[in-house]
Amino acid sequence: MAMSMRGRIILDPRPLNVDVVPDTMLHRKNELRMLELFFKPLLNEIEVGDVSVPIIVSIDGKHGVGKTHLVEYFYLKHLCPQTLTDTNKKIEEIADNMQKLSKYCQKRSKIVRIRVSAYTTNLTVNQLLTIVSNKLRLLIQPRGLAPQEVLNVIFEYLKKYDKYLLLVLDDFQYSLMRKGDEVAKFIVRLYENYEEERRIHTIFIMDNLDTALGYITDIKTKNEMKINHIRLDPYSINEIYDILWYRAQKALYPSAYDDEIIEYIASNVGCENKSNCVGHLGSARVGIEVLLKASLSAEYKGKDRIDFNDVRAALTNILERGEDLLRLDDSLRSLNDHELLFLLAVIKALESSPGSKGGVLIGEAEEEYRRICEALDIEPRKHTQVYTYAKRLSQMGIVKRSVGGKNMRGRSSIISVDIPPDKFEKKIKELLKIRGFHEIDNI
Length: 443
Known about the structure:
By secondary structure, this protein is an alpha/beta fold. It has helices spanning 29-48, 67-79, 88-94, 98-108, 125-135, 147-160, 173-179, 182-188, 209-213, 219-227, 237-251, 259-269, 284-300, 308-318, 323-334, 337-352, 362-376, 383-395, 421-434; strands at 56-60, 111-117, 164-170, 200-206, 229-231, 360-361, 400-403, 413-416. It folds into three domains: 29-231, P-loop containing nucleotide triphosphate hydrolases (Rossmann fold, 3-Layer(aba) Sandwich), CATH 3.40.50; 235-321, Helicase, Ruva Protein, domain 3 (Orthogonal Bundle); 335-442, Winged helix-like DNA-binding domain superfamily/Winged helix DNA-binding domain (Arc Repressor Mutant, subunit A, Orthogonal Bundle). The chain has 19 helices and eight strands. The protein has a five-stranded parallel beta sheet with strand order 2-3-4-1-5, with helices on both faces. The longest helix has 20 residues, at 29-48. The radius of gyration is 25 Å and the shape is flat. 37% of the residues are buried.
């Protein structure tokens, strides 16, 4: 007979799963109100059966500030229940269980939510329509059909069953980086050739709207994505504390932790100043992960309580990728493709001539950049643009740029970095592979 092993620390691990949507969104009331305001026309017009305005919302913010959770929570708690005809006691009974509520809403709500991640999907218009068709279980083979033909089938399905589609495009900056504004333009101009009621509405989720707009050439698309915009700031120390305390109450035995443990994690993860909050700071995701790892460590060691050593070990484990790289993570993600390729060139030039001048000449880095572009069969940027890249990277604090000595011809710029080149190169290549540069490991 199997014996169940019950620990003294973790009561229920689910609230410490960073992907689980909480049953309340702490410190996001204003953002929820904005979403309600943006989608109010949809909810009002569903009642009379004539939705005439397509709704497009853009949400941005750094990693771990709750962008995806905000949208999911908004759908489950604000959109879904208001469109159900059989609410009453049934919906009240399951409203506090977000997992059950999600299944219930997808089956019965008039608004069907489909989330597509552009981080793991090389998103094109055809691929997007295929994903939507498969999620709706339409009996068609999108391959070989024109996008408008597939779209017509989707609209016919939605109209027949009186459904509305909420399309959530997560990590959308990667779609823009890889394919330009193809998908965004398609979404924004969706109804130019379709005069009937608007049954598809979209939320774009991305790291930074201003950076994302730099990849968009279509003026109408750029303007539409800016109109309904919500920015999520990183969390302060006090806000991280509240989030961790709320999760701990649901996940851990009361005797397993105390106020000082939660305060210690929050002080290491939260922001003192939201206007200057870099790397992992301000990320609830990191804070929750630290609490989970510390809890598991204490449980594994047979302790009755989480102590500071458990938390320190968890922090070290999570930040072992390199604190400096975590600090620069958002900045690196905001770079365009050629800025990343030039940065990779700087790192490679430093590795091939370590310590010779405390850095490398910009000319050496540019020569390496052109070699990388040639190996990838892409057109390198001109010298003046490369110089602009070096200047911007320096202004962002990613590299250090100084001027050579008097005896150095032309007093050329010297570029250096503080981060170990091998770790830096690995990180840059990871970002480039996400953007479709699959051959970068061979460079």
